[in-house]
Amino acid sequence: MTLNTILRFSRATTPEEMFTGQWQDRATRLDAYKPYLDQRWQEGCTNAWKLWEEIKEQGYPPRLRQRPRLRQQESSRQAPTGRPPPAIGPRRHALDPHAPDALPADDRLHLKAVLANCPDLTALSEHVRSFGHMVSDLQGDQLPTWIETATSTADLPSLRHFAQHLERDLDAVIAGLTLPWNSGVVEGHVNRIKMLKRQMFGRAGFELLRKRVLLYA
């Protein structure tokens, strides 16, 4: 915090003075409904969902419908007259691990034009797609050959470095690209234990945490 902020906090006599000039003073769509919400709160209705349903019937815009509407407005925008539409970046298609035949016709034409103007990107695209086939089809036995081919590509240093990093733990990578098992179940248990730790942080000790972990495991 800056010195002026600390001084303003130290001189405040009420909590409201500490928030002067921040987001609390900004106008929102909820301002027109605040008197009604205060009235219903005083009457004893403290259920936030019920209050939201009531003001929604009075015309309050549902928040969940705002995002699709924004996406529709974005898609309906037209490019300025006399200017071509923005070109799609080559990374989207050239580095797609799937076959080009799976792309729409316009995207295939765009990909063909991009690869024709960049031989390095053509080679990189082939390496990426072959690696994608190994991952999707569990063909880990082809990984040593792929690494040898990738490391011999002098014009693609990033791909060469990636292949060299795979050699640091080659057996584990081959097993991951060959065996049908994964660590999804383990990650689920780890996520559950982290959730219990967050719930109990600062509230209980290790013994209670151990009992909860054994109970919900």
TrEMBL record:
Residues 93-103 have a biased composition (Basic and acidic residues). Residues 62-103 are annotated as: Disordered. It comes from the Bacteria. Residues 141-213 form the Transposase IS204/IS1001/IS1096/IS1165 DDE domain. Coiled coil: none annotated. PANTHER family: TRANSPOSASE FOR INSERTION SEQUENCE ELEMENT IS1557. This is Transposase IS204/IS1001/IS1096/IS1165 DDE domain-containing protein. The lineage of its organism: Bacteria, Bacillati, Actinomycetota, Actinomycetes, Kitasatosporales.
